[in-house]
Specification:
CATH architecture of the largest domain: 3-Layer(aba) Sandwich
Low-confidence stretches: 17-25, 206-212, 216-221
Oligomer: single chain
Radius of gyration: 35 Å
Largest sheet: 6 strands, mixed
CATH class of the largest domain: Alpha Beta
Mean pLDDT: 81
CATH topology of the largest domain: Rossmann fold
Shape: elongated
Strand order of the largest sheet: 18-17-14-19-20-21
Number of helices: 12
Structural class: alpha/beta
Distance between the termini: 107 Å
Length: 468
């Protein structure tokens, strides 16, 4: 009998302990989801000031206690409104299949709520660490359905990890906020500029010559890929008169030619240390990669063959020039994986590879960053050999920030010295372009933000002149 009594007592204690544990666990769970708002601290700090003033005015003690009791009741009412009422809060983030490097990508969040009239929310989207944004939030009065849109500009390629969507719900009292962890983590790749590729693809049409920054080139040369026979129109070249068709029909007929197709266009990217220089949040390599994707896409639309070579102290990725439908996807995937290297580029290795990979005369766009005359003298023999076999376009970057600093007003002797050095470096870099032109090597000396536009202009110019 005694053993049975002890068993009953222990079982009762265990059951009560379990119930207490469950209650404590639920309280802690709600405690973790409850956050104090700024209004709570302001109001209770004012009440604390009344308690302090009661030290000098004893009559204020009773008033302070009454106000404190009322504030506690209001705080309990605020908690009741947050937890006793069933608030249905749902959020969903909509992302594109991939983000575009260096472009504004729109992210959409749809927030659905129910039984929340008169409440206020603060929504925080856990952005990837690459953006380095720690104060990103929306705060407003809510309705049944709210849609948020905001732009994101990725600074580098790779995989970006979005976290949860955090929603903080607070009533009109505003002492506390209830936290909701919504959505789910999402991983999304950041590819080279797909948006720019789609925008510039319009420029490959001959009629799209009125876009800002695009130059309409007069055709100096003549391609010889026959298109059709048409009636003579005033201004047509008389050398193209088709005398047989003229004699057969009795009307003056001329041959019309079109741009030659299936020409090889290779983009060569230097991945050496000089391409690691940052500009407006992106490296020079990323600017070159974006331009490469655009040029490859336009070349394929012009029915040319697009190829790719990347190199540094070692050979990187290579793609033989092709023009099949899936080739631009291979170019995109290859560029996505490219990484900078902290070593000098080996141009001798590039020359050996070009002899093996590039067969026939081709157009070569070389993206690099030549910083000094010494660097140019070191690689100039290789560039001249490449230019003898192909049409070589050397593309390097203008340091606009250095130029702006050099031409700004100096305020003391030290700034005069520094600005003089900056001007000298800018002038020397411009001379590099002239030195290459002396040997018949064409150049593009441009700011990073205008790289794609100037490179595309050069391609269309050479295409219109029949040089490729």
């Amino acid at each position: 009998m005694l053993l049975f009594s002890w068993y009953f007592i222990l079982r009762t204690i265990r059951r009560q302990f379990s119930y207490s544990f469950i209650i404590i666990n639920n309280v802690l769970k709600y405690f973790k989801l409850t956050y104090l708002r700024a209004r709570f601290f302001w109001v209770f700090s004012a009440n604390l000031f009344l308690f302090v003033s009661a030290y000098f005015i004893p009559e204020m003690l009773t008033v302070s206690k009454v106000i404190f009791a009322l504030l506690c009741i209001v705080a309990m009412l605020d908690l009741y409104r947050l937890y006793a009422i069933d608030h249905e809060v749902k959020a969903e983030r909509t992302l594109p299949f991939a983000l575009s490097l260096g472009d504004e990508n729109i992210v959409k969040i749809v927030l659905n709520t129910a039984h929340t009239t008169g409440y206020k929310i603060e929504l925080i989207d856990e952005l990837p660490v690459q953006f380095q944004k720690r104060d990103f939030s929306f705060e407003e009065q809510i309705t049944d359905k709210v849609t948020y849109q905001y732009p994101l500009t990725p600074p580098e390629r790779g995989e970006y990890a979005f976290g949860n969507i955090l929603v903080f719900l607070s009533s009109s009292i505003g002492f506390f906020a209830r936290k909701y962890v919504l959505g789910s983590p999402q991983n999304i790749p950041v590819y080279p500029s797909i948006i720019a590729m789609k925008n510039y693809s319009l420029y490959s049409m001959q009629k799209a010559s009125k876009f800002y920054g695009m130059k309409k080139m007069r055709r100096i040369g003549q391609s010889y890929e026959f298109e059709q026979i048409k009636e003579y129109i005033l201004g047509d070249d008389l050398r193209n008169v088709n005398w047989k068709a003229t004699a057969r029909t009795g009307d003056l007929k001329v041959n019309h030619f079109q741009e030659e197709k299936s020409q090889q266009v290779y983009t060569i990217i230097d991945k050496g240390r000089t391409m690691n220089m940052p500009f407006n949040g992106m490296s020079l390599l990323d600017y070159a990669i974006n331009a490469t994707l655009v040029i490859s896409n336009v070349a394929l639309q012009k029915q040319d063959k697009a190829g790719l070579i990347t190199f540094s102290d070692i050979i990187g990725n290579t793609l033989k020039a092709q023009n099949d439908p899936g080739h631009i996807s291979r170019v995109l995937q290859t560029l996505y994986k490219e990484k900078e290297r902290d070593t000098e580029a080996n141009y001798e290795l590039l020359y050996q590879l070009s002899n093996k990979l590039v067969h026939g005369r081709s157009l070569l766009f070389l993206f690099t960053n030549i910083e000094s005359e010494y660097s140019l003298e070191r690689i100039l023999p290789i560039l001249r050999k490449l230019n003898q076999r192909h049409i070589l376009i050397v593309i390097f970057f203008k340091n606009s920030e250095l130029e702006d600093y050099g031409y700004s007003e100096a305020k003391n002797t030290e700034e005069i010295y520094l600005k003089t050095i900056a001007e000298k470096m800018s002038v020397e870099k411009e001379k590099l372009s002239l030195s290459l032109n002396m040997y018949g090597i064409q150049t593009i000396y441009t700011e990073p933000e205008n790289l794609t536009l100037h490179t595309l202009n050069k391609y269309l110019e050479l295409k219109s002149r029949g040089m490729i």
